[in-house]
Amino acid sequence: MSVITRFAPSPTGMLHIGGARTALFNYLYAKRHNGKFLLRIEDTDRERSTDEATAAILEGMEWLGLTADEKPLMQFSRAGRHTEVALDMVSRGTAFRCYATQEELQARRELGEEKRQAAKAEGISEDEKSTLLAEANDLLGPYRSPWRDGAPAPSEDAPYTIRLRAPDGGDRIVDDGVQGTVRIQASELDDMILLRADGTPTYMLAVVVDDHDMGVTHVIRGDDHLRNTFRQIPIYEAMGWDIPKYAHVPLIHGPDGAKLSKRHGALSTLAYREMGYLPEAMKAYLLRLGWSHGDQEIFTDDEAAALFDISGINKAPARLDLEKLGQINSHFMRQADDERLFGLLKPSLEAEKPLTEAETARIRAALPEMKDRGTTLPELAEAFAFLKDIRPIELNKKARKALKGEGLDRLAGLRDELQQLPQWSAETISSAIGSYCTAQDLSMGQVGPPLRAALTGGLPAPDIAPVLEWLGRDEAMGRIDDQIAQGRE
Question: What residue ranges are annotated as transmembrane (predicted)?
Fold first, then answer.
């Protein structure tokens, strides 16, 4: 059997990280088994579905590289097919026309609530209380329509809904790929609506029809849908269709164990892109949120596709850990191609103004050695601040202290040594600094601070010799001369 999975978001909001993880799991499972990964936009909620949300979902999927194997299916466009199936079920006797009105159903619920409140009254006997609670539960529990067994219509032109004839009794069992064997009583299921009184199909019907018609063999989704599975399987049975295998994944929680919310970082997937995370890092992190393969922490796309399996999904909810995400992002930034990484950094590098040619050349030269200077793209971009055109350089308190007295004299002496270099490279610069220290009986701890202060103003920077090389002879000597001149005024 060829494996076909699907991701079916509703375009009533952005693609959040929980949805992105669901999409990733479905994508990887299909790739692992050389199957198909499909995308369906469940836009049947016409009031809340928006084109903007649909576009954002598609953009988020594209950013993550979770490309569907076929053109996305828009669920609302299939309303005619959903109606066709509902009417077919009526002809089979597995669904029926129900003439209960919204007013009657509301009155039923209100009566049930009245009986529940009456059971709490003082002075009633235990028998009366038991009777009232039983009646309340019957009225407030799963609805079994009086028309399920063929009762006549109240009138020839009475409006109606089409409801599924729910299973009559016994256990209902789902063998779930993550949750194991899950069992409920059939009496817990209601005669749910398939077609509303206005003729529009419900979500429950549309999902099943679409999954069947798309050939979906495995449904991997959040465990908040587990209850829906018990309601959807009877539709498959009513139509004589093959039932897909289900795997319900625990939801993602915040670091405190509570349900994930915006205060924990439950942002849209594209928000993480704007925060400076790489798509491969986001995927590697989401993969480990609730799935494991031995002790391995970081997976490439190819490794994930080769190893992912439902059996590795944990039953316990995963906890969002932005510090861990940062570590993984830092790893993938170090692994990134220099040209691609520079392109990703450029928006942050140019947040205030466009880079000059000189700045671009310096940053490109430094990039291979400075990839480990941040956990996000903006953070890494900030590490290159000392390579921008910042003359006259602004000194922080520590840098000003390093350029006083003997520090300034040592900088001037080193300046003469550097000026004589025939070749400007980190190797020759390092050698010249070492020679100067030896000749003057100084340590690097005495020479380095004033030199670093003059070059960076106290901004964080790596080893001083590469810094001098990246800046270039003219820029480096200019910064040194600026501080010497200022110090001697």
Answer: none
